[in-house]
DNA sequence: TCCCTAACGAAACTATGAGTAGCGTAAATG
DNA sequence: CATTTACGCTACTCATAGTTTCGTTAGGGA
């Protein structure tokens, strides 16, 4: 097919694995491209031949851990929404990628293109799934008809980012269900 | 009292004002200490004589706009809580400091001491006020007794940070009331 | 008034880390 | 064996936070 020496996929894997390792050890601020290269046993130029910037490389590194949020569907939209929230909280709390994400966010937001890619790959697919579930729940009369789906999603997922970023403590995976119940049932005395 | 040439308070003000201006123009990532010095008509050394780092300087610069969230108390804890949330959303959405805060968070979190000071000055006072209001509301039977105050606060304030950081769009000040109603009343059909 | 002391400005400096350039070598295809 | 692209290596450029040095200025106290 193509001419010349082919790229070595093993090097891709080594680079991404080294990125995750270093992310776990020191977090995003301490992640140095030179260190990734050394850890992966690869030249720095090999990294920049594959990704245009450190940010893109990290995005690919965390993709595997964060990208796949498939859950089996039960047919009950509220139950599916709860499970989607649960697995999302779990990924954010229990994976290297999730724990690094808060510190990553500023770097991402500083670069428009990077931010767009991040939302396209991780945020929007998740929100579209949630939006569909919310609509089905409204149709079935399980949610109030005047609910703003975006507002509801913000209330559900907001704490998972707010806690690590602002408070510096993770949102435990167990809090997913608690948040879900709180938002669905409300906390007021009727 | 003290010996030698006294510090010029006008220079402090000029530096903090220049910081806010540049923050408004280009956001935190584009904020350069040299630019602040030039804009303030001051030498860079004068800045570093006052603050140990860029982060501390910015923290002081945003303090005035974010720090004072005093609202008059009505005596009704739920109403007071709503107003506290309202003014918080307003500050985050409508001040230079608030809009810069999301981009600032990573820088802050990268520095333990800075993060601690940030929480001590801005986060904890606000949460303690909210916590007191929640307890009073529970005592008066206006909130369910099994409410976890931290969880409730996270659900209320989370979206205000989640939207700008993750979605890249501000949380409108008007959404404060909507979030409040949603969380208090719940979205489920009883 | 005259020191003493600390603040100030200016310029040159260090340190760090992202990203690039040039080149010799290795591994594929034909 | 020739061509082409990947790879490693070394040495760079560039930007920016933070420092150092020193001559100058503006106060307070005797």
From TrEMBL, chains A, B:
Source organism superkingdom: Bacteria
Keyword list, A-Z: DNA-binding, Transcription, Transcription regulation
Tell me the protein's name. Answer: TetR/AcrR family transcriptional regulator
Is the keyword Acetylation assigned to this protein? no
Which InterPro entries does the record cross-reference, listed alphabetically?
Homeodomain-like_sf, HTH-type_TetR-like_transc_reg, HTH_TetR, Tet_transcr_reg_TetR-rel_C_sf, TetR_C
One Pfam family assigned to this protein is TetR_C_11
Domain HTH tetR-type stretches:
9-69
Q: Which residues bind DNA?
A: 32-51
